[in-house]
Design brief:
By secondary structure, the chain is mainly α. It is built from 15 helices and no strands. The longest helix has 36 residues, at 19-54. The radius of gyration is 29 Å and the shape is flat.
Length: 299
C-alpha cells in the first residue's frame, strides 16, 4: 500500500501521428507542388503564346491596339513577307551552313579530347585539361578584334569560314570539360577488358567509349547548338555581306530606313525561329535528360 502511494506517476504515452494527419500533409505538399509547376508553365507558355498571336497582327494593330489584344484576322501574310521579303529563308540557310560543320567539329574533337584526357594515361594530361578550363574563362569579346584582323588579312572575311572557326574554338573548352566528366563515370575495367581483347585506342574509342556516352553527346551537341544558333555578337562581327547573315543578325533588317519596325513580319520571323528550336528540343528531350544525369554518378 505504501509503495503504491509513493511510486512516481508514469509519463503519459506519446500520441502517434494519425494516418489522417499524414494524408493531409501529403496532400498539402502535392497541392503546393502542383501550384508551383502550374505557375512555371504559365510563365513559360504565356510569352510564347503572346509571341505567336502577335505574329498575325497588322502594323496598324500594333500601333493602335493594346499589346494584349487579339489579332483581328488570322492570315499568314506576315509569315509570307518574313520568308520572302525579309529573307528569313536565306538567313536560316546561312545559320545551318555555319552551325552544322561547327557542331560536327565540336562534338568530334571535344569527345576525342575528353577520351584522351580522361581514359588514356600520359604525362601532362592534367595540365592540358587545365588549359581547356582556362579557355572557358576567356571572354569572347576579347578575341573579336584580333580575329577580325586575322580573317581580313587572310581573305576569309567574305565567307562563312570565320563563323565556323570561331564557333568551334569557343565551343571546344566547355565540350572537352563536359565529355571528360562523362568519361570519368565509365568504369576503367571496360577499357581494360577491351585492351586485353586486342582493341586499339581508336577501336576502344569508336566501339566502346563513344557509344557509352551517346546520350551525353546529344546533350552537349544541343547545348552548343543553341549557343551557335542564338549567337548575335560573333555573327554580327564577322558577316560583312548581307547575303551571309545568320538568322539572328537578319532579324535586325526588319527595321526600316527611318527607324520604323515592321512588327508583324518581325514577330513572324521570331516565331519561326523559336518554334523550330522548340520542336527540336521536344524531339530529343529524353536523351537530354539521360545525358545530364550520365556523369553524375560514377559507375
Amino acid at each position: 500500500m505504501i509503495d503504491s502511494l509513493t511510486a512516481p506517476p508514469r509519463p503519459a504515452p506519446v500520441r502517434p501521428r494519425t494516418a489522417a494527419g499524414a494524408r493531409r500533409r501529403r496532400r498539402a505538399r502535392q497541392v503546393a507542388r502542383n501550384v508551383l509547376v502550374t505557375l512555371l508553365v504559365v510563365i513559360e507558355v504565356v510569352p510564347l503564346l503572346w509571341l505567336v498571336l502577335s505574329s498575325f497582327k497588322t502594323q496598324a494593330e500594333f500601333v493602335n491596339d493594346p499589346a494584349w489584344s487579339l489579332p483581328r484576322s488570322w492570315g499568314f501574310q506576315n509569315y509570307a513577307d518574313a520568308w520572302t521579303t525579309g529573307h528569313v529563308a536565306l538567313y536560316i540557310r546561312n545559320s545551318l551552313l555555319a552551325t552544322a560543320p561547327s557542331l560536327a567539329l565540336i562534338v568530334l574533337l571535344g569527345t576525342a579530347a575528353g577520351f584522351a584526357l580522361e581514359v588514356m594515361v600520359w604525362r601532362g594530361r592534367h595540365q592540358v585539361l587545365l588549359v581547356f578550363l582556362l579557355g572557358i574563362m576567356v571572354p569572347g569579346q576579347m578575341i573579336l578584334l584580333p580575329l577580325f584582323r586575322v580573317y581580313f588579312q587572310t581573305g576569309l572575311s567574305g565567307t562563312l569560314l570565320p563563323l565556323i572557326i570561331t564557333y568551334t574554338a569557343t565551343g571546344l573548352p566547355l565540350t572537352v570539360f563536359m565529355m571528360a566528366t562523362y568519361f570519368r563515370a565509365i568504369p576503367r575495367e571496360v577499357f581494360e577488358a577491351a585492351t586485353i581483347d586486342g582493341a586499339s585506342i581508336l577501336g576502344a574509342f569508336w566501339r566502346i567509349g563513344f557509344p557509352l556516352v551517346r546520350n551525353a553527346v546529344f546533350t552537349v551537341a544541343l547545348v552548343q547548338f543553341f549557343f551557335i544558333w542564338n549567337d548575335l555578337l560573333i555573327s554580327l562581327t564577322f558577316t560583312t555581306d548581307d547575303s551571309l547573315r545568320t538568322v539572328q543578325v537578319g532579324l535586325l533588317n526588319f527595321t526600316g530606313q527611318y527607324g520604323e519596325t515592321a512588327y508583324g513580319p518581325l514577330f513572324a520571323a521570331i516565331s519561326i525561329n523559336v518554334l523550330g528550336a522548340l520542336v527540336l528540343y521536344l524531339l530529343i528531350n529524353q536523351r537530354i535528360i539521360k545525358g545530364l544525369t550520365a556523369g553524375a554518378v560514377k559507375g
